[in-house]
Amino acid sequence: MNAQTQEFFISGAAGQLECKLDLPPDSEPRGIALIAHPHPLYGGTMDNKVTQTLARAFTAIGYVSVRMNFRGVGASAGVHDAGLGETDDMALLHAHMSQQYPHLPVALAGFSFGTFVQSQLQQRLIAQDIPAERLALIGTAAGKWQLPEVPANTILIHGEEDDTIPVSDVLDWARPLDIPVIVIPGADHFFHRKLHHIKQLIMQMWHR
C-alpha cells in the first residue's frame, strides 16, 4: 500500500497465513485495526480496493492497520472454510497483534464476506470479555450468511446499487438492531469511484 507496509506470516490451524501491516504516519499508534477481505472464492484478497481503503482510513486516524489473506488466498496455506476457519484465523491474528501492542484498543473492519468473519469474531471476543472497541462493516453480508448481532455503535456503510447484497437485506437485518445504515448513492458492491466516501466516513465518525 505504501512504503510503510510490512509483510509477515502467522501460523494458523491450516498453515502459514500471509499478513500485511501498515503503521500510522509520524505518530504513536492509538489502536489496532484488523481488516477482513471479501469472499476468497470470488477473487477476494487483502489487496482488494475496499480493504486497502479501510487500511488507509485507519492509519490516517492513528491505528496500526493489519490485513490477512484468508486460507487458500495468495501465500496463505489451506482451503476456504466457509467462514468458520477464517474466523479462527482472524482470532489468531487478534491475539498476535494484541501481544505486539498490548493495552491498545482493537477495531474490527470488514468488507462483504469479511463482515461475516468480523461479526462472528466480535461475538467470541464478547464471550471472552475482551470485545473490540468498535466495528466498521462495509457491504455487510446480510442475507448471504447468518450474521450475529453487532454492537449499537457499529458503522454500517452500503452501496445504493449493490446487486450482490441488496441494501434492502441490510436494512432488514439492521432494523431490529436499531443501527443506522449509511447508504452511498450510486455506489455498487465494490464502491467503484466511491471509495473516498468510505475513508472520509471512517475518519469523521470513528471517535464520535
Describe it for me?
- The chain is of the alpha/beta class and 208 residues long.
- The two termini are 27 Å apart.
- It has helices at 49-60, 84-100, 113-127, 167-174, 195-205; strands at residues 6-12, 15-22, 31-36, 63-68, 106-111, 134-138, 155-159, 182-184.
- It is 30% helix and 22% strand.
- It is globular and about 40 Å long.
- The protein has one domain (6-205): Alpha/Beta hydrolase fold, catalytic domain (Rossmann fold).
- It contains five helices and eight strands.
- Helix 1 (49-60) packs parallel to helix 5 and helix 2 packs across helix 3.
- 44% of the residues are buried.
Q: Can you tell me the CATH class?
A: Alpha Beta
Radius of gyration, in Å, reads: 16 Å
Arrangement of strands in the largest sheet: 1-2-4-3-5-6-7-8
Q: Give the end-to-end Cα distance, rounded to a whole number of Å.
A: 27 Å
Structural class: alpha/beta
Strand percentage, roughly?
15-25%
Classify the fold: give the CATH topology: Rossmann fold
Produce a short descriptive summary:
Helices cover 30% and strands 22% of the residues.
What labels would you give this structure?
Rossmann fold; 208 residues; eight-stranded mixed β-sheet; alpha/beta; 22% strand; 5 helices
Helix-strand layout with pairing:
Blueprint: E1 6-12, E2 15-22, E3 31-36, H1 49-60, E4 63-68, H2 84-100, E5 106-111, H3 113-127, E6 134-138, E7 155-159, H4 167-174, E8 182-184, H5 195-205
Parallel strand pairs: 3-4, 3-5, 5-6, 6-7, 7-8
Antiparallel strand pairs: 1-2, 2-4
